[in-house]
């Protein structure tokens, strides 16, 4: 009798692990996709996965569903370790009823989310699903609601990651949208509210699945995706790497790694990167690479809103969040998309105790009717709100230009930056010297025998009288003026001196960020 029971158990275990069976697994592989269990195995440490509720099955019997019940109900959930640190994982299994989400499928995911939140560890979901299980009707919709609520309650408490490795359509897209970071893979990832067929029927527009909701448009155009990879192994390796920079929850500090790059390494190359002419562009990513620990920079949303560069790096082994203007795109002006990109990244850093370093070379917010009517006032205010709200250490380095409201967003001590540094090339003012001189000295210029020469004279006068970094330093708005060669050591010192910083905010339910 005991042997019979054991064989029953083993049979059910094999059935659960087989998912949709050999033919469907073969079909999954033919599409260049791994199965749910293969993905988990590739992501986590060997032999560390502990599955939760593997025998759970759907209860619906309508429309032939009683003949399609499979243990696990189309999703694999449980706990595992990544580089020795605990996480919870939910991976949808496309080989079982197309990975569709029904009542018990959703309950398994929600249970994993609750355990991740209660345990104070990251939650990772791997999406590969045909969407809501139509046969289960409102039970599927209720399941999504449970997942969305768990995502929301976990937001800012534990890091949440969505890995899109197949279709993710309709209501299914909103759970990834609430999580902190979305990973996508070329050719196999798709996200959209309504697919090409519905769009064709409603609007008459013709578009492919990939052009509508693939990794490329969501990485470069919509900004929905944060990371894009060529294949699944690279994607999962990228997630593992990012996790190594982040704390398990909002009560912990990010991991401190051994310092392998000399703290006192001179960064003379930074001076060579920056053109003497403030109007000439340069690639701020080269400056970042020179200043941070060698090879440690992970750029977030590199293809979207490229006039700002955001990402994580290590500085003397400490995780920092970098927020930098990119002079090679739109002359580094801030616009609607870059404001959204920066504000969301800054708020993540603050939620998870990641110090912020701002690298400043900004002429202002991008002018134009499209920007004004698109709500640049509202969107730009998100950066101001994010910085003023943040309690983590905040360090700014003014490289060249810092004008107007963009200066306030990027480097103002009164907004909340703890330490502001500047290169001798820094210029701080309401607007550039040419524009300022044309306004302040317009009568002198108009009355001069040689207006062009007088304009040049007044531009230089304004630059020396108002924009010089030592003027701002004299008022206490800049803490120190440094040489480019000292960039790394001064940033290291600044972060270390603020490492124990603690701030409280007035008690409130929550603020009302200008969404």
CATH superfamily of the largest domain: 2-enoyl-CoA Hydratase, Chain A, domain 1
**What portion of residues is helical?**
40-55%
User: Which spans of ≥5 residues are poorly predicted at pLDDT below 50?
Assistant: none
Provide the CATH topology of the largest domain. 2-enoyl-CoA Hydratase, Chain A, domain 1
Number of domains: 3
Overall mean pLDDT stands at 91
Q: Approximately what portion of the residues adopt beta-strand conformation? A: 15-25%
CATH structural architecture of the largest domain: Alpha-Beta Complex
Distance between the termini: 64 Å
Q: What is the makeup of the main sheet?
A: 8 strands, mixed
Commentary on this structure:
By secondary structure, the chain is of the alpha/beta class. The chain has 3 domains: 2-243, 2-enoyl-CoA Hydratase, Chain A, domain 1 (Alpha-Beta Complex); 268-426 and 478-497, 2-enoyl-CoA Hydratase, Chain A, domain 1; 432-467, no CATH class. The chain has helices at 2-18, 22-30, 36-43, 103-119, 138-154, 174-178, 196-203, 209-213, 215-220, 232-243, 268-273, 284-291, 336-351, 369-374, 376-389, 404-411, 433-440, 442-447, 451-467, 469-474, 487-497; strands spanning 50-51, 75-82, 85-92, 123-127, 160-164, 167-169, 181-185, 190-192, 227-229, 298-300, 308-315, 318-325, 356-362, 394-403, 419-422, 427-429, 480-481. Strands 10, 11, 12, 13, 14, 15, 16 and 17 form an 8-stranded mixed sheet that branches. Strands 1-2-3-4-5-7-9 form a 7-stranded mixed sheet, with helices on both faces. Strands 6-8 form a two-stranded parallel sheet. Helix 5 links the parallel strand 4 and strand 5 (160-164). Helix 4 (103-119) runs parallel beside helix 5 (138-154) and helix 17 packs across helix 19 (451-467). The protein is elongated, with a radius of gyration of 26 Å. The model has no long low-confidence stretch (mean pLDDT 91).
